[in-house]
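Deliverable D2.4 — example input (structure tokens):
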């Protein structure tokens, strides 16, 4: 970990095995397996993130007495960038099962016959997030533009959170640098891996391809 950037594959664990399947073009042909692997990554990230959240001790009545147990002081808001973020979001929700949820639509609007594009935010559905912990997820952090615009839209429309965590399966050096410049200084990043190249169309290399298409089918 360096400066709140947690790269989960830096040490050998089941993350590395799941990540290998997510990247493998042969395994990717099974879209259900691909979605489930993204979901599993979300579950692991939820467990890791939970270790740095605030906890409090409460009494729990058992059939034989009383136990002192730890509970989360406050539940997070799980936010994802549609549509590729849905399986990763579900994995987070499997573990943070009392969390509130937010959904943000962002897409690349390519210029005709050009690699250039603009990212547009079309839709946001979210509870108020002022003073809350937000976990914002997107499986691929390529240029970082979608993440930054999604964050700005969330803050402008639903308030300023107390804490922000970003969860992505694969990030690029360029994308990670951009979001670290534009998100709050104390943002914590939870990443499966960081790759070092982008194609002219801004896909991560070696990456895994288009996560949305692999999970839900090709789009026009």
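Example output (designed residues):
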């Amino acid at each position: 970990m360096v400066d709140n950037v947690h790269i989960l594959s830096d040490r050998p664990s089941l993350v590395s095995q799941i990540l290998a399947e997510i990247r493998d073009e042969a395994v990717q042909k099974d879209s259900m397996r691909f979605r489930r692997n993204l979901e599993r990554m979300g579950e692991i990230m939820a467990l890791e993130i939970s270790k740095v959240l605030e906890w409090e001790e409460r009494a729990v009545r058992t059939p034989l007495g009383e136990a002192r147990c730890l509970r989360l002081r406050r539940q997070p808001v799980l936010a994802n960038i549609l549509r590729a973020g849905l399986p990763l979001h579900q994995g987070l929700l499997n573990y943070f099962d009392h969390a509130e949820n937010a959904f943000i639509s962002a897409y690349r609007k390519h210029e005709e016959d050009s690699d250039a594009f603009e990212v547009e935010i079309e839709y946001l559905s979210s509870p108020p997030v002022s003073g809350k912990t937000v976990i914002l997820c997107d499986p691929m952090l390529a240029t970082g533009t979608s993440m930054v615009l999604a964050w700005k839209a969330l803050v402008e429309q639903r308030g300023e959170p107390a804490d922000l965590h970003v969860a992505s399966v694969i990030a690029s050096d360029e994308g990670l640098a951009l979001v670290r410049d534009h998100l709050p200084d104390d943002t914590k990043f939870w990443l499966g891996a960081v790759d070092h190249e982008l194609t002219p169309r801004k896909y991560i290399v070696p990456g895994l391809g288009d996560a949305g298409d692999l999970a839900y089918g090709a789009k026009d």
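Residues 5-216 form a domain with the Rossmann fold fold (CATH 3.40.50.2020).
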